[in-house]
Structures are given as structure tokens and as C-alpha cells.
Amino acid sequence: MFGIFKRSFEIIFSDPLAGELEVALIESYQHLKDTGHSAQANCLKGILKSVIDRDSELFKKRVITTDLLGGSGSVLDVWVEPEQTREQFEKSFNKFLNLTLQAGLTHRAVKQAERASKIKL
Question: Is the pTM for the entire model greater than 0.85?
Fold first, then answer.
């Protein structure tokens, strides 16, 4: 019954956009992996697979999660050290969020996360 109120998002993985998403995800993944944030890095690996496979439903399911956009312990809230690596991570993760919106996943959680990550920069 409540499914009728759920908004449907049409996600389009055009070739240049999907390639940019892959790069942003790989960069973000590498920064997390290099700084010992394996659980958060694995979250990004699952999203990367959905982009490579051009699976928009899986992409949506993996992006709109507390593991990615939630509170403490999420990819969005992780603290990366040293500072230079943190800045690089925040730039690549913000790029991922921006590209996600461009692809059509304009869920309010993604919009809020993208705005919050811009403020950090």
C-alpha cells in the first residue's frame, strides 16, 4: 500500500557519466582502503560493481543506505587521516555524489549528502 508513495528514479548511465562515476568511486575506494576503512571501502566496491554492470536498480539500492549516507560509521561520516588524504577523499566522494545526482538519482538523502560534502570543502 505504501509503495504508491515511493518515488521512482530513472537512472541513466551514459558512457561518459558512467566512466566518471567509476573513476570517482575508485578514487574514493582507494583513499578509504589506504587509511584502514575497509568496511566503508567495501560499500563503495558494491556500488562500483552496479555502475560497471549498468544495473540502475542495484545502484539505487546500494546508494540509498545508511552504510553510505547514514550517521556514525557511514562512508559520508568517516574521518580520514592525514589531512591531505582526507581532502582528496572528500573531493572524490563529492564528485561521486554530484555525478549520482546527474545520473538521475535525485533522492533527498543524496541531495543532502552532496550539500553537506560541499560545505566540508
Answer: yes
Phi, psi of 89 (to 5 degrees): -60, -45
Q: How many whole angstroms separate alpha carbon 99 and alpha carbon 88? A: 17
Contact 29, 46 (CB under 8 A): no
At 48, give phi and psi (nearest 5°).
-60, -45
Q: Are 48 and 25 in contact (CB under 8 A)?
A: yes
Is pLDDT larger for residue 6 or for residue 19? 19
Mean residue pLDDT across the chain: 91
| 39-46 long-range Cβ contacts below 8 angstroms, 24+ apart | 39/67, 39/73, 40/67, 40/73, 40/74, 40/75, 40/78, 43/67, 43/68, 43/75, 44/68, 44/75
Do the beta carbons of residue 23 and residue 91 sit within 8 Å? no
- For 26-80, what is each residue's pLDDT tens digit? 999 999 999 999 999 999 999 999 999 999 999 999 999 999 998 888 999 999 9
